[in-house]
């Protein structure tokens, strides 16, 4: 995973609350392999009208949106379905950071696992940032080392869990981290099984039965 | 003296392998469910050439993409949908994982199947790449949804890194009025606290109204924890839990069951245990509740009216409210019972267990639905049970379709969609824009309320039927 230290980049304002993962990527696109690039599906139904034509007035259709790597939104961003595809859509579109007053819990851990920074800013600060940006993409500076966002006159402090910050700063991957604990896991598993003997396949456990294909 | 602890702490601590300096816990996972959508995670595993650490603790379930008109793979017209089901079968076969596949008599929606097969038990730590995994907490287990990277991590290690969430006690005291269900409790608290009201928290549901709930109703309540932003919901196991589990295929039996029960009985919060937050609801004040907007927090008792943006102080909120009304095709101040519907859906992991189907059938018996609709049982076993009781006849005679089990119109991945602009009264869990199909308008409510809406042709008050 690519580490993030700071971003000096264009930010898109998305002045909406409750942008859930069903909106970030509608379910019908989730059959596609990642290799097709999920950016085209990002907020698909907000970006297009009923006939499938792009809505020119939607922020992601702005000519500069493709160069943006920061998204600013209102509260409860990424609520709902655990689909990591929502993060793939953001990342494949080009985003490295989403700034909002609050995030769905599963969304934020998915984000961090894909090198996308979920930066939490108090609601008042989000409003100031949105006001600063207006209706078009604008330049922001996001510094993960100091946890600050700067834009024009604004200099705002954001929060992120320290563990996630470290992970993002270093581009660490969980599976690698966990492997250092292999011995402890093996020991735990044996001890746990001894403490919970009823969890061994019970007499009634049908186990793996004939498959249908 | 030991510190008083919560049920949640007890289960969490029993699964903690290691705690990092920054406070993250490496947790042992007892049960891991994978479904068709888990293919991203399997791909990650294959990229790194890793095996599945514990195939015996991993269970594959075909539910999200399965057709509800057939159980034959070759009859699925959409090659991509068929491919999703085949892919799950390939991945589980390759790694020696048990599969509850399309035509398995035990097939069902993961969160219906788990409890039904006795896979869900008190004190376990359970995960699945699906946010409604919170459902399984109804048995006193910690169960939550995870993303694909985490699914890959669990597949590779049978463990997961998590930081301990804060804890909230949601206490519901008193008696529910007749016809009021777990769905109404859930929509009521979510409307009160907001769709992110319990964000970062594990909820323990307590109180006399919770104790009185059946296991099916507890599953519904815990299922909807995520819609209020909670990481998970738990209910302390009791005799109802043990009775439900007895004799289930994967539940311990005989002496093992005795051993298990001795442990399960310790899974309660100590009387002095401290919670980060306490919320109390009076059960008797909860009415039949429906959603009118595009977030589960947009819920009101059925005798109320659609909110008016003009009465909203905050300009942003007024704008968003107007946007919601535009999407939903509603006007400010319109009575909820005046909202005409074009379709109903009875199904999903929230409300498609046998008790839900019985509640809907009780309303529909001898009546006709004014609108078309689908009934998709939560599992193949629920379907058989309902047929044995003659519920299928009631639905069919009312003019609804009786389908095979699967997620179906809850998310529309299998092609069961609500048409654009159409309004659906639904027993599901999400009224998000486009959830049931592009442009679809969803109103969430209990199964009996959906049945009442079907009969009336508009949202209706179950108490007046
Ligand atoms: S029924 Fe709906 S909410 Fe439940 S698992 Fe299926 S898609 Fe998810």
Automatic annotation (TrEMBL), chain A:
Pathway: Amino-acid biosynthesis; L-leucine biosynthesis; L-leucine from 3-methyl-2-oxobutanoate: step 2/4
Broad enzyme group: lyase
GO CC terms, sorted: 3-isopropylmalate dehydratase complex
Catalytic activity: (2R,3S)-3-isopropylmalate = (2S)-2-isopropylmalate
This protein's UniProt keywords: Amino-acid biosynthesis, Branched-chain amino acid biosynthesis, Leucine biosynthesis, Lyase
UniProt GO BP: L-leucine biosynthetic process
Matches recorded under SUPFAM superfamilies: LeuD/IlvD-like (SSF52016)
UniProt-listed InterPro entries: 3-IsopropMal_deHydase_ssu, Aconitase/3IPM_dehydase_swvl, AconitaseA/IPMdHydase_ssu_swvl, IPMI_Swivel, LeuD
One Gene Ontology MF term: 3-isopropylmalate dehydratase activity
Enzyme Commission designation: 4.2.1.33
Pfam families for the chain: Aconitase_C (PF00694)
Sequence ranges assigned to domain Aconitase A/isopropylmalate dehydratase small subunit swivel in this UniProt record: 7-123
Function summary: Catalyzes the isomerization between 2-isopropylmalate and 3-isopropylmalate, via the formation of 2-isopropylmaleate.
Quaternary structure (record): Heterodimer of LeuC and LeuD.
PANTHER family hit by this protein: 3-ISOPROPYLMALATE DEHYDRATASE SMALL SUBUNIT, 3-ISOPROPYLMALATE DEHYDRATASE SMALL SUBUNIT 2-RELATED-RELATED
Family of this protein: Belongs to the LeuD family. LeuD type 1 subfamily.
Protein known as: 3-isopropylmalate dehydratase small subunit
Origin species: Halomonas urumqiensis
Gene: leuD
TrEMBL record, chain B:
Keywords: 4Fe-4S, Amino-acid biosynthesis, Branched-chain amino acid biosynthesis, Iron, Iron-sulfur, Leucine biosynthesis, Lyase, Metal-binding
PROSITE patterns, per the entry: ACONITASE_1 (PS00450), ACONITASE_2 (PS01244)
Residues at which [4Fe-4S] cluster binds: 349, 407, 410
Cofactor note: Binds 1 [4Fe-4S] cluster per subunit.
Cofactor(s) essential for the protein: [4Fe-4S] cluster
Pfam families per the UniProt record, alphabetical: Aconitase
Keyword Magnesium annotated: no
Domain Aconitase/3-isopropylmalate dehydratase large subunit alpha/beta/alpha: 9-457
Pathway: Amino-acid biosynthesis; L-leucine biosynthesis; L-leucine from 3-methyl-2-oxobutanoate: step 2/4
Catalysis performed (reactions): (2R,3S)-3-isopropylmalate = (2S)-2-isopropylmalate
Assigned EC number: 4.2.1.33
GO annotation (BP), single: L-leucine biosynthetic process
Molecular function terms from GO: 3-isopropylmalate dehydratase activity; 4 iron, 4 sulfur cluster binding; metal ion binding
Superkingdom: Bacteria
Subunit composition and interactions: Heterodimer of LeuC and LeuD.
Similarity section: Belongs to the aconitase/IPM isomerase family. LeuC type 1 subfamily.
Primary role: Catalyzes the isomerization between 2-isopropylmalate and 3-isopropylmalate, via the formation of 2-isopropylmaleate.
HAMAP family registered for this protein in UniProt: LeuC_type1
Designated name of the protein: 3-isopropylmalate dehydratase large subunit
């Amino acid at each position: 995973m690519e580490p993030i230290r700071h971003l000096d980049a264009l930010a898109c304002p998305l002045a909406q609350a409750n942008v859930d993962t069903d909106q970030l990527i509608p379910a019908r696109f989730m059959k596609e392999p990642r290799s097709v690039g999920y950016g085209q599906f990002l907020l698909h139904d907000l970006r297009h009208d009923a006939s499938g034509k792009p809505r020119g007035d939607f922020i992601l259709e702005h000519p500069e949106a493709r160069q943006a790597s920061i998204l600013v939104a209102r509260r409860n961003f990424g609520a709902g379905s655990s689909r990591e595809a929502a993060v793939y859509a953001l990342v494949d579109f080009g985003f490295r950071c989403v700034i909002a007053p609050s995030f769905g819990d599963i969304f934020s851990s998915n984000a961090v696992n894909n090198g996308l920074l979920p930066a939490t800013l108090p609601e008042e600060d989000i409003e100031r940032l949105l006001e600063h940006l207006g209706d078009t993409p604008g330049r922001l500076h996001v510094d993960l080392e100091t946890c600050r966002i700067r834009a024009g006159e604004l200099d705002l402090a954001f929060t992120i869990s320290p563990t996630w910050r470290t992970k993002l700063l270093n581009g660490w991957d969980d599976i690698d981290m966990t492997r250092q604990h292999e011995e402890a896991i093996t020991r735990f598993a044996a001890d746990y099984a001894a403490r919970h003997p009823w969890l061994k396949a019970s007499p009634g456990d049908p186990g793996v039965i004939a498959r249908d294909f | 003296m030991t510190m008083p602890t919560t049920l949640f702490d007890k289960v969490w601590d029993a699964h903690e392998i290691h705690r990092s300096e920054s406070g993250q816990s490496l947790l042992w996972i007892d049960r891991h469910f994978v479904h068709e959508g888990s293919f991203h995670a399997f791909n990650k595993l294959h990229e790194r050439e890793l095996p599945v650490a514990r195939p015996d603790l991993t269970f594959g379930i075909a539910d999200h993409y399965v057709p509800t008109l057939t159980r034959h793979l070759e009859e699925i017209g959409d090659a991509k949908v068929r491919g999703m089901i085949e892919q799950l079968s390939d991945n589980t076969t390759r790694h020696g994982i048990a599969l509850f596949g399309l035509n398995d008599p035990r097939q069902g929606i993961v969160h219906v199947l788990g409890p039904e097969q006795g896979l869900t038990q008190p004190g376990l730590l359970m995960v699945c790449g699906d946010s409604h995994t919170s459902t399984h907490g109804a048995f006193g287990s910690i169960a939550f949804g995870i993303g694909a990277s985490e699914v890959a991590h669990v597949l590779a290690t049978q463990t997961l890194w998590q930081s301990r969430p804060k804890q909230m006690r949601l206490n519901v005291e008193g008696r529910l009025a007749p016809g009021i269900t777990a769905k109404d409790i859930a929509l009521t608290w979510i409307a009160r606290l907001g769709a992110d009201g319990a964000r970062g928290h594990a909820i323990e549901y307590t109180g006399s109204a919770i104790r009185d709930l059946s296991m099916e109703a507890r599953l519904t309540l815990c299922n909807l924890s995520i819609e209020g932003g909670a990481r998970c919901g738990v209910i302390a196991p009791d005799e109802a839990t043990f009775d439900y589990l007895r004799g289930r295929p994967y539940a311990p039996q005989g002496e093992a069951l005795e051993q298990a029960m001795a442990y399960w009985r310790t899974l309660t919060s100590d009387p002095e245990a401290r919670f980060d937050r306490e919320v109390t609801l009076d059960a008797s004040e909860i009415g039949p509740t429906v959603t009118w907007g595009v977030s589960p927090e947009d819920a009101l008792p059925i005798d109320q009216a659609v909110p008016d943006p003009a009465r909203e102080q905050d300009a942003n909120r007024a704008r968003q409210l107007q946007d919601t009304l535009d999407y939903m095709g509603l006007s400010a101040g319109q009575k909820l019972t005046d909202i005409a519907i074009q379709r109903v859906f009875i199904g999903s992991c929230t409300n498609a267990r046998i008790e839900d189907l019985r509640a809907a059938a009780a309303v529909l018996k001898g009546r006709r639905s004014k609108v078309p609709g689908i009934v998709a049982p939560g599992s193949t076993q629920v379907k058989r049970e309902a047929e044995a009781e003659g519920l299928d006849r009631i639905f069919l005679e009312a003019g609804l379709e009786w389908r095979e089990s699967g997620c179906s119109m809850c998310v529309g991945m299998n092609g069961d969609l609500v048409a654009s602009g159409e309004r659906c009264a639904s027993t599901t869990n999400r009224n998000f824009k486009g959830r049931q199909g592009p442009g679809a308008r969803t109103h969430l409510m209990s199964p009996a309320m959906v049945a009442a809406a079907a009969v009336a042709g508009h949202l209706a008050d179950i108490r007046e039927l």
